[in-house]
Amino acid sequence: MKQYYYLTPQNEQKGPVDGSQLAAYGVNANTMVWTQGMAQWAPASTVSELVPYMQPASSVPPVTTPQPAYVQPAVGNTQPSMAKPGNNMLMAILTTLFCCLPLGIVGIMYASKVDSLYSSGDYNGAVEASKNAKKWCLIGIVGGFIVSVIYLIVVGVTSFAGVNMS
User: Fold this and answer.
1) Of 91, 85, 86, 88, nearest to 141 (Cα)?
2) CB 39 within 8 A of CB 72
3) Nearest-CA neighbor of 119 among 160, 58, 70, 78?
4) Tens of pLDDT, residues 33-72
5) 15, 65, 73, 136: which is deepest, by most CB within 10 A?
6) For residue 84, with 0-12 CB atoms within 10 Å meaning exposed, 13-18 middle and 19 or more buried, which class applies?
C-alpha cells in the first residue's frame, strides 16, 4: 500500500500514512490526499485505491482551499520558501588571503554557517550569519587598507629621510 499525505480541516499537511490506515487518522471521503505519482491533491473518494477504506463524510466540511498543480509534501526538514541568502564565502576567503587574516577567518566561520542554517529551516539565522560574514569581511578589507596605507607612508617617509629599514 502506498504512503499518503492528507490535509486536516485546518489545512495542515500530515503524513505519510499507509493508505489502509488513513481512516484511523480521521481521513474521510472529502479529505484532500496526495501520494507520489499524483499530479495534485484530490479528495480521498476520487482515489480508487482508497475507496474501500473511506468512511462517509461526517459533519466536517471538505477542504476547499485551491491547491497548486503540484505540491511536494514536507518530509523531514522543510525548505523555507524564501530564497537562500548569499554566504559571502568568496569575499571571506579573499579577505583572509589579501587583507586581514584574523578578520577574514571570522568571516569564513560565519559564511560556513549560512548553508547549514538555511537547510535546517532557520532562515533568520542564515540571514544573520550572512550579514555577520559580510560585516567582518568589510572590517577586514578596510582594516587591511588602512594598515597598508600607514605602512606605505612609514616606508616612504623613512626612505625619504635616508633611514634604512633593513
Assistant:
1) 91
2) no
3) 78
4) 888 888 888 898 888 888 888 766 555 555 555 555 555 5
5) 136
6) middle
